[in-house]
Amino acid sequence: MLNSGKCPKCGEVVSSVRIEDVDVSLSSQITWRGVSYCCPSCNAVLSVQIDPVALKTDIINVIMEEIGKRPRR
Question: Partners of 36 in the beta sheet?
Fold first, then answer.
């Protein structure tokens, strides 16, 4: 695969990214685990998003807790 996308800070071609854990918050009370995608050459942050794997795990855990609270029929 030929990559032609360049880092907006250093101008190097971005053929891979470095991922870092970050906190993503809407307010001091609402937070999620997130990831930032960084240029491997200069460490500039290219993008940030809520960590999709952590979000999936959180959703599954909440569902399992709710299922456990329901009385069996």
Answer: 20, 48
pTM of the model: 0.73
Q: Is 54 helix (H, G, I), strand (E, B) or coil?
A: helix
Residue 29 to residue 23: CA distance in whole angstroms: 12
What's at 69, amino acid-wise?
K
Please give the angle made by the CA atoms of 40, 37 and 44, to the nearest 5 degrees.
55
For the stretch 34-60, pLDDT in tens is 999 999 999 999 999 999 999 999 999
Q: Are strands 18-25 and 31-38 parallel, antiparallel or unpaired?
A: antiparallel
- Residues belonging to the chain: 73
Distance CA(59)–CA(42), nearest Å, equals: 35
